[in-house]
Design goal:
By secondary structure, this protein is of the alpha+beta class. It has two domains: about 5-60, no CATH class; about 75-155, Glutaredoxin (3-Layer(aba) Sandwich). The protein is built from seven helices and four strands, in the order ααααβααβββα. It has helices at about 5-10, 20-35, 40-50, 50-60, 80-85, 90-100, 140-155; strands at about 75-80, 110-115, 130, 135. It has a four-stranded mixed sheet with strand order 2-1-3-4, with helices on one face. Helix 3 crosses helix 4 (about 50-60). The termini are far apart.
Length: about 160
C-alpha cells in the first residue's frame, strides 16, 4: 500500500477545498514537516484551487511561518518590551553577525536557525534567548558569543 508523503497525508485530512482552512493546513504542515517549502505551498494551492502566490502572500504576512528548516540549534530571541529595554537589539545584532543570518534563516551548515519573537514570557530574566527550548539570560554580547561557541564546539 502506498504511504503518502506528509503533505499529501495532511491534505487528505482536509477533503473540502475551502479557503477558510488555509491557515490550519499551513500550521499543520509546519508542525509536522518543520517549515513551509515551495513544494508544500504549490500542493496546498492545488488542493484549495488557489494560486500559490496568494498562499505565499498570506503565509509571509504571519510571522509564525518558516520557509526554511530549523537548524540543529534553534535560537529564539525575545524582543518584547522588557527585553528590548534591557538590550535585546544588541543581542540580535550579535547573533546576526556571528552566525551570518537574519531572523527566519538557517546557517548553510544547518547548525543554527534564528527567530526573533514578540514575547517569551520571561520578563524577569530579560533579555532572554532560548536555544532548543532552554532559556538563557544573556546580558552581554561577549556572554552570547561564548554561549554560541560552546554550542559550535559540541559538533
Amino acid at each position: 500500500m502506498h504511504n503518502p508523503e506528509p503533505i499529501e497525508r495532511i491534505l487528505q485530512k482536509y477533503p473540502l477545498a475551502r479557503r477558510d482552512i488555509l491557515i490550519p493546513i499551513l500550521q499543520t504542515i509546519q508542525d509536522e514537516v518543520g517549515f513551509l517549502s515551495e513544494e508544500a505551498l504549490v500542493k496546498v494551492g492545488k488542493h484549495l484551487k488557489m494560486p500559490t502566490s496568494k498562499i505565499y502572500s498570506l503565509a509571509t504576512f504571519y510571522n509564525q511561518f518558516r520557509f526554511q528548516p530549523k537548524g540543529k540549534y534553534h535560537i529564539r530571541v525575545c524582543h518584547g518590551s522588557s527585553c528590548h529595554v534591557m538590550g535585546a537589539v544588541s543581542l540580535i545584532e550579535t547573533l546576526e553577525q556571528s552566525l551570518g543570518i537574519k531572523s527566519g534563516q538557517t546557517t548553510r551548515n544547518g547548525l543554527f536557525s534564528l527567530e526573533v519573537v514578540t514575547c517569551m514570557g520571561a520578563c524577569s530574566k530579560s533579555p532572554v534567548i532560548e536555544i532548543n527550548n532552554k532559556h538563557y539570560s544573556t546580558k552581554s554580547a561577549e556572554d552570547l558569543k561564548k554561549l554560541i561557541e560552546n554550542y559550535k564546539a559540541q559538533n
